[in-house]
Specification:
With 124 residues, this protein is an all-beta fold. It contains no helices and eleven strands. The strands form two sheets. Strands 2, 4, 5, 6, 9, 10 and 11 form a seven-stranded mixed β-sheet that branches.
Length: 124
């Protein structure tokens, strides 16, 4: 079992920055896929960024490449998402997730632990 708690969401103007953090109840660095997903009401959940266990390989959605950075602190059981140059279309509920399978890290199908979510709102 892994409990995940997100923080750092909020409201910001377009062009601004936010950093999301996710605290895990156990060390996930070497075995778990860790990812950030987002969902707007009426839309499907979208993979935003993910990191593979152990080797640091990353995935980014095309819409956030060059603006968002995912990183993980192995000794603090913390996953973060640095979001720069935010756009109104980034507005959504953002979820941290962990996948114990260790593969398919760019797909929500392979994640079995989810946080409660944190709201990000970007105004124009």
């Amino acid at each position: 079992q892994v409990q995940l708690v997100e923080s750092g969401g909020g409201s910001v103007q377009a062009g601004g920055s936010l950093r999301l953090s996710c605290a895990a109840s156990r060390n996930t660095y070497t075995r778990y896929c860790m990812g950030w997903f987002r969902q707007d009401p009426g839309k499907e959940r979208e993979a935003v960024a993910a990191i593979w266990p152990g080797d640091g390989r990353t995935f980014y959605a095309e819409s956030v490449k060059g603006r968002f950075t995912i990183f993980q602190f192995s000794d603090k059981n913390t996953l973060s998402l640095q979001m720069n140059s935010l756009k109104p279309e980034d507005t959504a509920m953002y979820y941290c997730a962990a996948g114990s399978f260790g593969w398919g890290c760019d797909s929500s199908r392979f994640y079995n632990y989810w946080g409660q979510g944190t709201q990000v709102t970007v105004s124009s």
